[in-house]
Amino acid sequence: MILGVIPARGGSKGVPRKNLRPLLGRPLIAWSIDAAKGSVLLDRFVVSTEDAEIAETARGEGAEVLSRPSELAGDAATTKALLQHVVEALSPDVVVVLQPTSPIRMGKLVDRAIRRFMDSAADTLATGFMSHQYEWTTVDNTPRQRLPGFFYDDGNVYVHRAWYLRQGRYWGDRLERMVIDRVYNHEIDGELDLVIVESVMRHLLERHGSLD
Predict the structure, then answer these.
(1) Number of separate domains in the chain
(2) Which residue from 2, 22, 93, 111 puts its CA 20 to 30 A from 166's CA?
């Protein structure tokens, strides 16, 4: 089974009640639920939350809810621990993580990531981009184009084989880095990010008519 997981705890420091904040008139979490519903390769998807209001909203958007233990909902809780709970509860073969804080997923991105994962025979896949940033004074005025750069995972789509999650690992042995267009690479960690993402999504909707 290929299982989609949308992690959505109630607590958030940078943006209070982040998963329920309106984005183009809808709760933030609704956009990730839409992406999961639009996938033809996911066999099932769930929203993992401990929060009653998020659960009610998710069900209203057509999602199945998996109750999260309270000990996996605090600031110290890790995604790895959450996914271990999901794997134990639902026994999937593959887990596809869709974080609500990265809501821009056009062009069937979820299915493209799953196909890339399967075609590459990877254990773990992440979407992202090549970053050429560096800490000031660590590079001697080298032009950005000459820097080797590094792959930065953007939080949009992660694909995991369940076997290594059961072993307490967060990555498998074979890693696949899926570089995607920069328009997708926006994460909501603060109030300004909400403004930026809403502006980008409004532009995309006006230009393309939908985010499908």
Answers:
(1) 1
(2) 111
